[in-house]
């Protein structure tokens, strides 16, 4: 590429900035930036935020530029990519044997709605990046567009969560650091949470209406203050007694897909409102 910038020195200021951002969640949060890597994530970002492509800074390993596909993708950005010596790229990359592209992009910060009157998921102190990414991917798959996270939940734009989400981030509006008090004051739809021994089974509840789902910490579950919230309708996921509980990512998938199943079934053969599903 004619205007491409090439970097071969680890002392280069542009490379040092990339390295700082790639290795520090604190620095990414401070600057309001995220580092995304790989064809799939970069393409997904462009599809959602292509109008902000001028704000991105793109890096590619020299070996990556041998790929027509990579060259075509980075050519969609208005500014030329930065070519990195392969050994430098390996230092910044979060992917083994990755060749790019890798991009520094503004972290999306969608405006909070005045109230929650449509489907949403709230993640309460879920700490494992794989679980967070898995839930985001499920939300995108079933059409739940809004995800809110409490303080203490893994940073959704960390490299590990981004990889686990597989592009789901760019189909969602993600609001981080949302206190439970805000949630309680602004929810205008049904609120559901799973609970061992709950009198109502997930598969007997009517889940066709809009709702907010709460999913809690891997070890402690929901915060005690949230558990005491009278608006919550607790639902149980049937399972054999050999296992105490499901992984939170699995539990979220079961709940959200049951909600989708009911809605699809209702669209094909409408049932009287309030009738239980079996």
Account of the 3D structure:
The chain has helices at residues 13-23, 25-31, 39-49, 68-74, 86-92, 129-142, 159-165, 180-186, 224-227, 248-268; strands at residues 5-7, 33-37, 57-61, 82-84, 102-106, 120-124, 146-149, 173-175, 190-194, 211-216, 232-235. It has 278 residues and is α/β, with parallel strands linked by helices. Strands 8-7-6-10-9-11 form a 6-stranded parallel β-sheet, covered by helices on one side. A 5-stranded mixed β-sheet has the order 1-4-3-5-2, with helices on both faces. β7 (146-149), α7 (159-165) and β8 (173-175) form a beta-alpha-beta unit. α6 runs parallel beside α7 (159-165) and α6 (129-142) runs parallel beside α10. The protein is elongated and about 65 Å long. The mean pLDDT is 91.
